[in-house]
């Protein structure tokens, strides 16, 4: 992937990015499916940029119940808020949903002028702010999806967003059934039962992660 195509490095030339990577002590790491990238309770000074694969962000309560908060696709970043607050323990865990490659960048060097006085830091700092704002929007969207009291309402809210984002009534979702249930805060069995009812009612069709919205139905 070209780093210039990512939100974090948007507007920067390849030569400028190469200079920045040296300033930011960039380090590439590879993770196997299921491997923990950052654990809850740890602290980090680095922003993680997913180069390939998929990272999943989750949190667990003291009883071991897990909740999916979101996913990080190639070109997107994670831990940017925690990296901006030195010593702040993570309230979430980040793990590899599949074999995943991550580029870590020292955020402290994004927010302060380096000894080389790179002229590209200001642009990168603006991009980082935009990334944080986008993540805040994603959190607001999840709150919206989980505001309905019914499982059908939560599913249709999420599917509606996916359809708008893909500009098509047919789209792929990044979650398996358990992950989707965790993301929407519902029981997996009850959700799968509701999906079957929605298909029977002619509202949707689905095969694995491919969803097709057929008609607008009651929530």
TrEMBL record:
Key word Transferase present: no
SUPFAM superfamilies, per database record: cAMP-binding domain-like (SSF51206), Winged helix' DNA-binding domain (SSF46785)
Keyword Magnesium: no
Keywords, alphabetical: DNA-binding, Transcription, Transcription regulation
PROSITE patterns according to UniProt: CNMP_BINDING_3 (PS50042), HTH_CRP_2 (PS51063)
Positions of the HTH crp-type domain: 149-217
Top-level taxon in the UniProt lineage: Bacteria
GO BP annotation list: regulation of DNA-templated transcription
GO molecular function: DNA binding
Coiled-coil annotated residue ranges, if any: none
Signal peptide: none
CDD domains, sorted: CAP_ED
SMART domains: cNMP
Domain Cyclic nucleotide-binding: 8-106
Protein name (database record): Crp/Fnr family transcriptional regulator
Native source species: Candidatus Merdivicinus excrementipullorum
